[in-house]
Write a structure and sequence with these properties.
alpha+beta, 4-stranded antiparallel sheet
Length: about 110
């Protein structure tokens, strides 16, 4: 059962993009990707909102996510969020392990 968390970071004056760039340039992103149980950690930029960055954060299971949340990494992330004065909207999804239904696959190229 994989867990996917979408985090929308929103700021002003380009701060959300600055935050994402610093997360990458500081090595924090690579450190998170190297954590046991991390499946993916990727930033995306919505075309219709210049002040928001979307993080798609994926974990193999809740235990791995709990370990990540208890790690010193979280204080580094919190410090950067404060530095750039970002607000967050969070969505959480859990895979159903059944995969994509056959009737939906016909829409996928």
């Amino acid at each position: 059962m994989a867990i996917t968390i979408n985090i929308y970071y929103t700021g002003t004056n380009g701060n959300a993009k600055r935050f994402a760039r610093e997360m990458v340039s500081s090595g924090i992103v690579n450190d998170i990707r190297a954590e046991e149980g991390n499946i993916g950690y990727e930033y995306f930029f919505p075309m219709d909102d210049e002040e928001t960055v979307l993080l798609i954060d994926r974990w193999q299971e809740q235990r791995a996510l709990d370990i990540h949340h208890a790690s010193p990494m979280m204080s580094k992330i919190s410090e950067l969020r404060e530095k750039y004065d970002l607000h967050m909207k969070v969505e959480r999804y859990v895979s159903d392990d059944a995969g994509i239904p056959a009737e939906d696959k016909r829409f996928i190229r």
